[in-house]
Amino acid sequence: QVQLVESGGGLVQPGGSLRLSCAASGSLFRIATMAWYRQAPGKERELVARIAGGGTTTYVDSVKGRFTISRDNAQNTVYLQMNGLKPEDTAVYYCHHEYSPAWGQGTLVTVSS
By C-alpha distance, which of 96, 110, 109 is closest to 22? Predict the structure, then answer.
């Protein structure tokens, strides 16, 4: 059973930056496509970014040029560097592991002045 632990969220002003981390258990991490999703209040969960085992990345249009997903296979950790944050980025952010149906507890990002 894969376990995912997200961290790094918090309150930040518009234009600020945060780096989210997701630590995953298990030996499949290095070949798994990992992804970050977010869910804003009253909205459905949406894909933000994904990174394949080989490093190929994709992003939702609303975060292109501002967010960067990366991974450290030696640490079984995936990151989301978020720059130029906007109020509409406010949400609970979750990471997802290709080979697991489970979700972590998420980490709350609040962008507000």
Answer: 96
